[in-house]
Amino acid sequence: MDALTRRRFLLASGVTGAGALAAGSLGLGFYELLKKSNGAPTAHHDPKLVLVTLYGGNDGLNTVVPYADPAYHSARPELAYAPEEALHLDDALGLNPALPGLKRLWDEKRLAIVLGVGYPKPDRSHFRSMDIWQSASPTGPVNTGWIGRWLDGTKAPVETAVSFEPVLPPLLVGRTRVGACVSYRGLTVPSWINAETVAALGHGEQGEPAMQARAAAAYADLISMERVVREAGNVSHAPDAGDAPEAPATGTGGDSALAAQLALVTRCVEAGVPTRVYSVSLGGFDTHASERVGQEYLFRQLDAAMTDFVTRMARTEAGRRVVVVVYSEFGRRVRANASDGTDHGTAGPVLVLGAGVTGGFYGEQPSLTDLDDGDLKATVDFREVFGTVLDSVLQADPAQYIDGYKGVSLPFIPPS
Predict the structure, then answer these.
(1) Which secondary-structure segment (H or E) carries 381?
(2) pLDDT tens sequence across 313-372
């Protein structure tokens, strides 16, 4: 391709100058990521962590349902699930009926549920609360994530932590190190542009700046992304959008295609990519109105994506060392509102999944009658969950990266 034409295209696309810097510094092409494997056998033996963020504040009481508690039914008569609807886990708690796959994983002892997880002095702002969860710092704002600080401490290369979300989460940002952001979406080109022509833009031109060359190479990488996702084989299992109205966008973050993101995680794990931490997300959990419809729609996506992923991971040695943690920025109020929904609350359950996980309940279910101004009182500090993950999965000292960590480890991951 003529160099002048190529440069004009890049200028029009905003990938020169600052645009090239942004694409080149935090963006890591998917095929570039796959090349990092180099067939290294050690990559298959390092445990991997997949963090699944449910943006918007997932209602924990309609996730892990206290179906036997009269206070639950009294507080939300229209939203509460009847005992016969819940998928019973024991004689008091059950899963939402839209989570049958997770129930199967529970029966197979591959799902651990940490009850009542929160942090001191809860903040009901989506953005401040998510900042607290991703920084693991409830006492004051900090500009690093707990994974980012681990990247700093280990002097990790950029491919060590990867987000398959459209935007790099603060979770992966350290002071001197930062994770990579690899969007699953691919590049959609207008019908009047030939995809092969755009792919040709990825070939470097002699003498061009390195950042510009790297940014341009991302185009060829993005065009191939859709095919890679299809090959991974997970996306077809997502529920049909016609099953229920899609939950409205709330501006609270997250993405809408968890299966597509996990497809890329699958490809990387099975290829032996040395990434240790993956970040993916599902948004839309700000259920102020018509909660049953919206939350069940999202849960069908979560259930299909998570059960397919955990089942596939169990087939390989590398996959059996993958641990998945599912969390949200806060739970919801105990009492339903007047719009068949729930408002911002506090504590909620954290799910931990994988072949190496010791399934069962951890922590204590919060009381529905002993409340803090109508909200649940947390029974487990979230730093205990993340500290356990740092220790058991990433082989790191939690006290080095989590301020206020008190040395409490939860045994949902046995010592290796």
Answers:
(1) strand 380-381
(2) 999 999 999 999 999 999 999 999 999 999 999 999 999 999 999 999 999 999 999 999
pLDDT at 408 over 50: yes
pTM of this structure: 0.83
The domain limits of the chain are: 1-35+186-222, 41-184+224-401
Reference 243, options 98, 340, 341, 104; nearest CA is 98
Angle at 143 between CA 141 and CA 146, to 5 degrees: 95
341: three-class secondary structure by DSSP: coil
CA–CA separation, 123 vs 273, rounded Å? 37
Give the C-alpha separation, 310 to 151, whole Å. Answer: 26
List pLDDT tens digits, range 52-86. Answer: 999 999 999 999 999 999 999 999 999 999 999 99
Q: Which of 162, 164, 158, 316 is nearest to 228 (CA)?
A: 164
Name which of 15, 324, 36 is nearest 180 in CA terms.
36
Span 113-136, pLDDT tens digits: 999 999 999 999 999 999 999 999
Task: Give CA–CA dist 275/273, Å, rounded.
Answer: 6
State the Cα angle at 307 between 305 and 313, rounded to 5°.
Answer: 100
The 8-class DSSP code of residue 166 comes to S
| Alpha-carbon gap, residue 365 to 372, rounded angstroms | 15
Q: Can you tell me the distance from the alpha carbon of 216 to that of 202, in angstroms, rounded to the nearest whole number?
A: 5
41-184+224-401 maps to which CATH number? 3.40.720
State the Cα–Cα distance between residues 346 and 323, nearest whole angstrom.
25
Q: Are 384 and 358 in contact (CB under 8 A)?
A: no
